[in-house]
Design a protein that fits this description.
By secondary structure, the protein is an all-beta fold. It is built from no helices and 37 strands. Strands 3-4-1-33-29-30 form a 6-stranded mixed sheet, with no helix packed on it. The radius of gyration is 24 Å and the shape is elongated.
Length: about 500
């Protein structure tokens, strides 16, 4: 987790230096007689000069990425210098996958397969507020509500051309070889390949919509009334919307199945169920999000727990035990991704104590996990008891008179499954970026590594697009498009 820094003054004679800078995940301002609050982009300083009169609290939802599943093309290789993230998406096909995200400053960074130059983020891209990952292309919605896209188009061009009449948009969805967007007036626009059922032919009576999704030659949408409408290929029954489906608010599209989130928080699924991707768990609680890979499903419960089911050939439905809570979920071809919210510290009680330590304090906030740790400057607190996601008890360490930095972080900042080369000698594969990791050889040849406290290996360096370079070799011609493959054959 990316920790929040709060400086609590004991004698108010100076401000502590920024010893361990972190990106902030909240802003805490407290007002009173002769009080001041200092805030900058690296940490939060809180100077207490008098009894507190009132408080105002606000915070942004930032977090760190947790990824698991297949890693044959580096889709789990989270960049060590990624920083705080506000949105994540994942894509790919049978042969490779990739992960992409929006950082706290609205910039885009991607890692994994670069076969179709997916990692080549346009150099002139303005800050973005939404991102969508297709099979072979990435879409973004900029802060000015314009749509940009890049990757393989199906016709040989390097960048996707957005319809000139698209206008400002509020939502986007990248599919197989086509794209969807919801305009600011709620109408849906589609462009790209229109073969095998007309995935880019929006029904004329669709009306205004609140959510959209796209996948393998089909498209789907949720109208403002909560009705699910779909068009395109129906080779796996994904167009056969259940007659008893309640009004919905979210929709996700897999290779040949759909996952819908009803307004009551229940999840429904239909279409291809050869790997159990439509077998919604009976104990699934109220949910807030749904996501689909090629043949697996994800759901985010209202309590922050991530649930997964369907094909598990690469552990893509084996949610890491260290992922206690998530704020966003996404799924690529054979991997899963979640955004674990950063700990938010709201208060420390009491706010002062002897410099020699030994004071029992209560840290109040949000998104604390079982393995969270508490720091006073660079000294770790002892006897830490995480009572809940919002409350921690700890004993202060020995410090110095003056101001201290109280930090809550999580020991495993990136929990992930890493797949190094699996040769006959496993001793060659025990180091990931300097950190020893225990390796187990699984029956299909994957390597599983326990969650590490170190950063994941750096991804393939980003390449600047070069228009003089020939376009990459495209997928198989559409006339010879592959039928969804047997599920466990992907490497």
């Amino acid at each position: 987790m990316i920790p929040l820094r709060i400086h609590v003054a004991r004698n108010c004679t100076h401000e502590a230096p920024a010893r361990r800078p972190r990106l902030p995940s909240s802003t805490l301002q407290i007002y009173g007689q002769r009080m001041r609050s200092v805030f900058n982009t690296r940490f939060i300083t809180l100077i207490l000069l008098a009894p507190i009169l009132s408080a105002r609290i606000s915070h942004a939802q930032l977090g760190t990425i947790v990824a698991w599943g297949r890693n044959t093309t580096g889709e789990l290789a989270i960049p060590a210098s990624l920083g705080a993230v506000r949105q994540v998406a994942a894509g790919g096909d049978w042969d490779g996958g990739y992960t992409t995200c929006l950082r706290s400053d609205g910039s885009v960074i991607s890692w994994g397969s670069n076969l179709y130059e997916l990692l080549n983020t346009p150099t002139d891209l303005e800050p973005c507020r939404a991102i969508s990952a297709g099979w072979y292309h990435i879409m973004v919605l900029t802060d000015s509500n314009t749509v940009r896209a890049w990757g393989y188009t199906g016709t040989g061009e390097r960048y996707w051309s957005v319809p000139s009449n698209l206008g400002p948009c509020v939502a986007i969805a990248a599919g197989y070889l086509h794209s969807l967007a919801i305009r600011s007036d709620g109408t849906v626009c589609a462009w790209g390949t229109n073969d095998y059922g007309g995935a880019s032919t929006v029904p004329t009576d669709l009306g205004t919509c609140q959510d959209i999704a796209a996948s393998y030659y089909y498209s789907t949408a949720v109208t403002m009334q909560g009705t699910v409408r779909s068009w395109g290929s129906n080779e796996c029954g994904q167009m056969n919307i259940p007659a008893d489906l309640l009004p919905c608010k979210r929709i996700a599209a897999g290779a040949g199945f759909q996952l819908a989130l009803q307004v009551n928080g229940a999840v429904r699924a239909w279409g291809d169920n050869r790997d159990g991707q439509c077998n919604v768990p009976s104990d699934l609680r109220e949910c807030t999000q749904v996501a689909t890979g090629l043949y697996h499903s994800l759901a985010l419960q209202s309590d922050g727990a991530v649930r997964a089911w369907g094909l598990n050939s690469h552990l893509q439905v084996s949610v890491p035990a260290t992922l206690a809570q998530a704020s966003i979920i996404a799924a690529g071809g054979y991997h899963s991704v979640a955004l674990a919210p950063s700990p938010v510290v709201l208060a420390v009680q009491p706010i002062s104590g002897p410099a020699e330590g030994g004071t029992r304090v209560t840290v109040i906030g949000n998104y604390f996990q079982a393995n969270s740790r508490v720091w006073f400057d660079d000294a770790e607190a002892t006897n830490v008891v995480v009572e809940s996601a919002t409350r921690i008890q700890a004993t202060t360490p020995t410090g110095f008179p003056g101001e201290s930095t109280v930090t809550v972080d999580t020991g495993s900042t990136r929990a992930f499954y890493y797949r190094p080369y699996c040769g006959s000698d496993l001793d060659q594969n025990g180091v990931v970026d300097g950190g020893d990791m225990s390796i187990l050889l699984l029956e299909w040849g994957d390597c599983y590594a326990a969650p590490s406290t170190l950063a994941a290996p750096a991804p393939t360096p980003l390449l600047v697009p070069d228009e003089s370079t020939p376009a990459p070799t495209p997928p198989a011609p559409q006339s010879a498009r592959p039928t969804p493959q047997p599920r466990g054959t992907a490497s």
